[in-house]
Design a protein that fits this description.
By secondary structure, the chain is α+β, with helices and mostly antiparallel strands. The protein contains two helices and eight strands; from the N terminus they run ββββααββββ. Strand 3 and strand 4 form a beta hairpin. The protein is elongated, with a radius of gyration of 14 Å. It starts with a strand and ends with a strand.
Amino acid sequence: MTVCGVKGRRSLSGATVRIGEAHGRDEWNSALVRAPRNDLLQSWEWGEFKQHSVGWRPTRVLLWRGDEPMAGVQLLSRRVLGVQSAHALRGPWWQDDE
């Protein structure tokens, strides 16, 4: 997967990071609840609700440092009047090193 021109694995401050889509509800929600400034509108359930109620398609992207998810964003997208539209309500979220 390519996100913002970044593919696969990269090194950041000596740590290996990788970017990719979340593989399921448990992986996504467990990473989200560990973020200090998380939001319900970034939850798996919110994305599913928006998909089934008004047709937004959720894409959930995680950034891992080693095996630990450090940041993520749930993007909701759909066509509006023939134009692709996307937004990330209350996202992205990330882990603070505090």
